[in-house]
């Protein structure tokens, strides 16, 4: 599990069938209270938007969030962080 801040959206012209109507968002990762400089594209199972602090899961567990057949997902947003105690 890791944390990050949503920075934008990704538009895909072709998607896998199980990922239709699932938004892709760009997330800038946070490590030890600082921006890690890494940006990942994550599938959103929640209604996250730019500026939201979120936590993500990766690997096979991310694909299981969609409760369908196994789909090609490497990172999924699974929740929001209300407050962050570190100064970013």
Structure description:
This protein has 88 residues and is mostly beta strands. It has one domain (2-80): OB fold (Dihydrolipoamide Acetyltransferase, E2P), CATH 2.40.50. The chain is 6% helix and 45% strand. The protein is built from one helix and five strands; from the N terminus they run ββββαβ. It has one helix spanning 60-64; strands at residues 2-10, 24-31, 34-44, 53-58, 75-80. A five-stranded mixed barrel has the order 1-2-3-5-4. A hairpin with a 2-residue loop joins strand 2 and strand 3 (34-44). It is globular, with a radius of gyration of 13 Å. The two termini are 19 Å apart. The relative contact order is 0.28. The model has no long low-confidence stretch (mean pLDDT 84).
Question: What labels would you give this structure?
Answer:
88 residues; mainly beta; OB fold (Dihydrolipoamide Acetyltransferase, E2P); 5-stranded mixed β-barrel; 5 strands; globular
Strand order of the largest sheet: 1-2-3-5-4
Name the helicity range: under 10%
Mean pLDDT: 84
Number of extended strands:
5
Identify the overall geometry: globular
Please give the CATH class: Mainly Beta
Structural class by helix and strand composition: mainly beta
CATH superfamily: EutN/Ccml
Strand-residue proportion? over 45%
Global Rg: 13 Å
CATH topology call: OB fold (Dihydrolipoamide Acetyltransferase, E2P)
Q: Structurally, how many domains make up the residues?
A: 1
Per CATH, which architecture? Beta Barrel
User: Segments where pLDDT lies below 50 for 5+ residues?
Assistant: none
Distance between the termini: 19 Å
Order of helices and strands: EEEEHE
Largest sheet: 5 strands, mixed, barrel
Q: What's the tally of helices?
A: 1
